[in-house]
Write a structure and sequence with these properties.
The protein is mainly alpha-helical. It is built from five helices and no strands. It is 77% helix and 0% strand.
Length: 148
């Protein structure tokens, strides 16, 4: 992978992470379940750390972080139309799981292809955070599905 391709990949992550900050922040405000609301808000803070570490990685490659156009629609497919509206907690969790799983898959793919140790470790950090988010979302979804 050449430098231009790597910068392109990092821009995709940078944009996805930004979308997640916006989405989880908005969803946190709509949730009646305080534990879910607080967790979404906390996860949004962690996604902002990912935005910042991707921006730093892009700058280390002498490029300027730039937000790409819609990156959510290709990931969410048909579900992308619904995220602008107010969603129930189960849909919020399902959308979250889809986004986190896509991020994890792509972080894993990129980890295998980078030689730079600093970037390698940053990608691992983000991957593990996404894994923890996915696990929490999946567990909460199971809990909600058990009660209704
Ligand atoms: Fe993230
Ligand atoms: Fe995440």
């Amino acid at each position: 992978m050449n430098k231009k391709q790597l910068v392109g990949k990092l821009h995709w992550f940078y944009s996805l992470e930004l979308e997640q900050v916006d989405l989880y922040t908005a969803q946190a405000k709509q949730m009646e379940d305080i534990y879910l609301a607080k967790t979404l808000a906390r996860i949004a803070v962690i996604e902002q750390q990912h935005v910042d570490n991707m921006a730093a990685a892009i700058r280390r490659l002498d490029a300027e972080p730039t937000r790409l156009g819609d990156v959510l629609a290709p990931v969410l497919g048909k579900a992308s139309g619904v995220i602008s509206g107010v969603l129930g907690p189960k849909t919020v969790l399902k959308v979250g799981i889809t986004l986190e799983e896509k991020a994890m898959k792509d972080y894993k793919d990129l980890i295998l292809r980078v030689g730079d140790e600093h970037l390698f470790n940053t990608l691992w950090d983000n991957l593990i955070d996404e894994d923890l988010h996915t696990a929490w979302f999946a567990n909460k979804l199971k809990e909600l599905e058990a009660i209704n």
